[in-house]
Amino acid sequence: MSAEAESHRGLFIKVWLWLLGLTLVEVILAYIQFDLVVMLTLLMGLSIVKAGMIMAYFMHLKFDRPVLSWTVGVPLVACILIMIGYFFPDSLRILDFGFAGWQ
Amino acid sequence: MSDSHSAGATVEAGWGGGASPFAVGHKKLGMWLFIVSDALTFSALIITYSYVRAANEWPTPFDFYPAIIFSSLMTLVLLSSSLTMVFAVDAAHRGDRSATAKWTWATALGGVIFIVLHVNEWMHLIHEGVTPLTNPYGTPLFGGTFFTLTGLHMTHVAIGVVYLGIIAIGFKKGKYDAEDVEVSGLYWHFVDLVWMFIFPLVYLMSTKIS
């Protein structure tokens, strides 16, 4: 375990630099300002990549048994997709209702 | 043929009882299960935020300077504290107790700097008249969702700072083992990971369009 952890130190610094780089890209995107949907897609794409890197390397999932990743990942992704699927069509529909006093 | 036989043997060896199929300790598995549930709590809040945002005229109140620069700095601090946490876990596995304590304290310091910067950012908004119920930008839901989401995250950072302090002191005294440090690290990286979604959604998507 100790020898394995030792050899990962350089790798962790590399991952940290990647995360900083991707964050810089996000901030530059905010500075340039694209269309809302384009911004959302790019930012969420980058965030998912960053989250994946944090989970794989910093949280050690890449070096644990794959069964742990599946156990953690499948319910999480499934529940989030269900929430998105249920709520967003409704959220966009509200805009068309035009309730009195609804701002 | 021999493949299916060895796969069956692996399943038997791992799941047949008396073994640890995940090959991690019970504390680490417990923390992972907590992280799944906590991630769903944050997902629900982030989706709530996005729901009301999509259904309302949403304000874009954050100037590139200072708000976006400050929140970028907060992101830098949190990411760097994750790196020092990895070094703490690395030192713990090597059995180097003082180095582990040093890196763990460095991580906690990162958390404190994050909170100071974030409270500073909050005060800036509060002075502009933003509260959980009202704000000068239009829909009051902006204040409510902003403070709920960032407030719960800041609470997690604060709990993490205390947790890391306890681990740093206890590990140096020999009260905790390397797995305890690793488990506290999982929590800390998770708090970092959540910020990777809050930062773009709450701050970058609401940058003031000049």
Give a topology summary:
The complex is a heterodimer of chains A (103) and B (210).
Chain A: H1 2-7, H2 9-32, H3 36-58, H4 66-97
Helix pairs in contact in A: 2-3
Chain B: H1 2-15, H2 26-54, H3 64-94, H4 97-127, H5 141-173, H6 178-203
Helix pairs in contact in B: 2-5, 2-6, 3-4, 3-6, 4-5, 5-6
Question: What's this entry about, in short?
Answer:
The complex is a heterodimer of chains A (103) and B (210). In chain A, 83% of the residues lie in helices and 0% in strands.
Describe the protein.
The complex is a heterodimer of chains A (103) and B (210). By secondary structure, chain A is an all-alpha fold. Chain A has 2 domains: 1-64; 65-97. Chain A has helices spanning 2-7, 9-32, 36-58, 66-97. In chain A, helix 2 (9-32) packs antiparallel against helix 3 (36-58). The relative contact order of chain A is 0.07. The model of chain A has no long low-confidence stretch (mean pLDDT 88). The model of chain B has no long low-confidence stretch (mean pLDDT 92). In chain B, helix 2 (26-54) packs antiparallel against helix 5 and helix 3 (64-94) runs antiparallel to helix 4. Chain B has a single domain, classed as Four Helix Bundle (Hemerythrin (Met), subunit A), CATH 1.20.120.80. Chain B is globular, with a radius of gyration of 21 Å. Helix content of chain B is 78%, strand content 0%. Chain B has 210 residues and is mainly alpha-helical. Chains A and B meet through helix 1, helix 2, helix 3 and helix 4 of A and helix 2, helix 3 and helix 6 of B.
